[in-house]
Amino acid sequence: MFGIVPKLQQYVCAWNFWPAFMKKFIMSEKGPFTIFFWTPLAKWGISIANIGDMRKPVEQVNTLQQCVIAWTGLLFTRWCFIITPRVYSLVICNFCMAQTGLYQLYRKHQQGKLFTR
């Protein structure tokens, strides 16, 4: 089971219509056959959903959820500078996720409803 991704990567890279830079990208350690490529894509969904929640009234924003979003964004922003390879798209994604969570918490604080669910 674990050997299928490298085989698929070799198969896709063997197609003759890829330009040289695409073959290099496909075979790279940050390419589309690694977790480092797909994680930012999935995490942007959280940030985009949180931006969409900014239209909601403050009473409907969950404090605990926003604390978790902000904390994981900050924690993993730091972690992205520790892991190898460094994936700057993941750094930006995590930083934006933290900022959206912190902004939602700021909104609740401004309304005096930070400690209500």
UniProtKB/TrEMBL annotation:
Keyword Repeat applies: no
InterPro entries according to UniProt: MPC (IPR005336)
Any one GO cellular component localisation term in the record: mitochondrial inner membrane
Localization recorded for this chain is: Mitochondrion inner membrane
Biological processes annotated in GO? pyruvate import into mitochondria
* UniProtKB keywords: Membrane, Mitochondrion, Mitochondrion inner membrane, Transmembrane, Transmembrane helix, Transport
Stated membrane topology is: Multi-pass membrane protein
Whether Cytoplasm counts among this entry's keywords is no
Q: What is its main location?
A: mitochondrion
Q: Which family does it belong to?
A: Belongs to the mitochondrial pyruvate carrier (MPC) (TC 2.A.105) family.
Q: Its biological function?
A: Mediates the uptake of pyruvate into mitochondria.
Q: What is this protein called?
A: Mitochondrial pyruvate carrier
